[in-house]
Amino acid sequence: MFFKKNARNGNASTPTILQQFKQSNDFLTFENKIGTVSYFISYYKSLIDVEVLHRDILPYITESTLRNLEDLSLAIPCENKIISNDIQEISSHVLTGSIMIYLNKDKPKQFILVQAQKNEARQISAPEVEFSVIGPKEAFVESMDTNINLIRKRVPSPNLQVTNLQVGKISKTQVAVLHIDEIANKENVNTVIQRIGDLEFDQIIDSSYLTQMIADNHHSPFPVLLDTERPDRAAAVLAEGKVVIVVDGSPHALIGPTTLIEYFAAFEDYFLNPHIASAFRLIRVFSVAFSLLMTPIYVAILTHHFELLPKDLMSTLVSSRTLVPFPPFLEALVLELVIELLREAGARLPTKVGQTIGIVGGIVIGTASVEAGLTSNVLLIIIALAALASFTTPVYQMGNTIRLLRFPFLLFAHVWGLVGIVLCFSFFLTHLLRLTSLGRPYLEPIYPPRAADLKDSFIRMAFARQSKRPIVVQTEKIQRFSQDKAFKNKDIDE
User: Fold this and answer.
1) Cα separation of 81 and 472, whole Å?
2) pLDDT averaged per 10 residues, the chain (length 494)
């Protein structure tokens, strides 16, 4: 058995702390006696596991000989206990699930604090946002210790280092920064720790709070820290030399530094043949470009460049827009807003109702708007395909960004036509060229151009050709394995 004493700040304010605790109805205090000596047990019933109290504490206390608080502490066969009179330490332990034991009811000098936290956690289930047909079916949960356990099972290395931090003046949220020593760049690790440690905020509820607070550019619509719910993905990027941030209470981990290309790569790609995986990645990139540009191109051509249309297609468009009283921009804007409305309604409603609203609402509204002459059937098809293409983005955050970017492209196309689309694209390209993730270029390997990192970007080459870790991470150990040995495939009889 082990306990330590802590007497840094005295006990001048201890009665005040007790009075503050007792103002809450879920804070309980009981008095018991051993011989002629009374002792008191106090705790928040909503935070502690009562079974620990009745199984590991009370039976041993009643059988002991009580002379002072040290004797009482020695009688309790629990490892996670301390004796303290430090106000901050007492408050921190009690509010995280510790039982207080003390002798003097009015002005106690010292307290025994025994950890008895109640752990209410969701069972590990399959990923919902990053679901894959092939591969592991485990996802992070809201417990930080469980999430770290899921990562350590996949990285059983003593070099996997965990740095614990606490953020939030009210929430006191626990945050863990993970990296593999001798691989991860120390500058990246120190940057993450420094940014989290410097945060001044009262409440951190989820990892998405940190995404916004420690990003290189707080005003960018593009995510610069990859959000994942898959422990296998977190373990894989740790081996690449990246940093993983796990937040207690959040079922998602953050990965950095990242590049734009990573947001179009599903982790399931690594479980497939490289040729199939590369084809899927190219389809996703094409789908995002289609979703972003197709509707603005339609508006630009019908507003400013109708001479570019072939004669056969011109008659189809004219006939579809004969009864439409609105200009192409307003027509497209209304349909885009209707699509977003259906998305939000489907996302906020229960699953079964949301699916019904999306299907029925899309069919009914689309058919009725065409028959009423409020929109053309050609534009309706284009916007439906663009909405469908936007769902191919494997990372939800980037999907939201693509949804937002369609509106400025639409406005520029209405004002300046195809020149406006090019101008808007130039603005966002300039922004992407300046954007960084933990100080690393966001557009790498496109800019700065690095041919070595193209092996796992728009296409995924075979594992035997990925002998080096990504250059963008600037790892301390760039070589993963010997490429010469990787190509030597010997049979057992050779």
Assistant:
1) 45
2) 42 70 87 80 88 85 74 81 86 88 78 85 85 88 92 92 92 93 93 93 91 91 94 94 94 94 91 92 93 94 88 82 87 88 78 67 76 84 89 88 93 95 96 94 91 89 88 88 66 53
Nearest to 180 by CA among 162, 196, 195: 162
pLDDT score for 490: 57
Cα separation, 450 vs 444, in Å, equals 7
Rounded to an integer, what distance in angstroms lies between the CA atom of residue 286 and that of residue 126?
29
Per domain, the residue ranges of the chain are: 5-115, 144-258, 273-441
Whether the Cβ atoms of residue 243 and residue 188 lie closer than 8 Å to each other:
yes
Based on C-alpha coordinates, what's the Rg of the chain?
30
Q: Are 41 and 100 in contact (CB under 8 A)?
A: yes
Residues with Cβ within 8 Å of 484's Cβ and at least 6 positions away in sequence, in order, are none
Beta bridge partners of 254: 227, 245
Which pLDDT score, from 0 to 100, does residue 37 have? 76
Residue with tokens 């001798």: 182
Distance CA 222, CA 398 (A): 7
- Biggest CA-to-CA distance, the chain: 104
Using an 8 Å Cβ cutoff, are 434 and 448 in contact?
no
CA 400 – CA 424 distance, rounded (Å): 18
CA distance 159 to 307: 64
CA–CA gap between residue 438 and residue 470 (Å, rounded): 15
> HSE on the CB side for 117, CA within 13 Å?
13
Question: Which amino acid, residue 239?
Answer: A
Q: pTM of this prediction?
A: 0.86
